Amino acid sequence: MEINDEFLNEVGLSDMPEDKKREFLKRTQAELELKVGEEISKGLTPEQIKEFEALSDGDQRVIKKLVFEMDSDFREDKVYQTLLKQSGKETGDWQVLADYLSVRWIQKNRPDYKEIVSRETEKLKEKIRATRG
Q1: Closest CA to 126 of 3, 5, 10, 4
Q2: What is d(CA 49, CA 26) in angstroms, rounded to the nearest whole number?
Q3: Rounded-to-integer distance, Cα 3 and Cα 85, Å
Q4: What are the pLDDT digits (tens) for 7-39?
Q5: Three-class DSSP category at 64
Q6: Scanning 8, 32, 55, 106, which has its CA 20 to 30 A from the CA of 46?
């Protein structure tokens, strides 16, 4: 989930001044990503964690390995096409390919990813609501 104005509405902070809002959104997004990452890693082996970190770092060796292991052409995948279009880059861009493979890797190795994100987002909302009094 992206931390945005809708999130601020849900936690009762929609009237936050604009100058503070940007920083709050940035910090809150980082906190959510950290919490989700911690929860995801709890269900992975050390080897899986190492592979995902290498993929996240754009390690071309790992990218090539994962592409080779695929049973279909990634260029025809709607997720890849969407990421490519959003990036404004050309087919073959390493970062787009790494982002695509990260999505597919998570889907394969942590099929409960969406539930984790939802659960951690709700926990974060409750934490913010509780600090507001």
Answers
A1: 10
A2: 25
A3: 22
A4: 999 999 989 999 899 999 999 999 999 999 999
A5: helix
A6: 32
Task: Assess whether pLDDT exceeds 80 at residue 46.
Answer: yes
Residues 24 and 8: their CA atoms lie apart, in Å, by: 10
* Alpha helical stretches, state H, 16-93: 18-42, 46-56, 60-69, 78-87
How many Cβ atoms from other residues are within 10 Å of residue 59's Cβ? Answer: 15
pTM of the model: 0.79
- 3-state DSSP helix/strand/coil % of the chain, to nearest 5: 75, 0, 25
Token pair of 82 as six digits: 């969407």
Q: Which of 51, 42, 21 is nearest to 119 (CA)?
A: 42
Q: Which residue has the tokens 């260029």?
A: 75
Distance (Å, whole) CA 82 – CA 100: 9
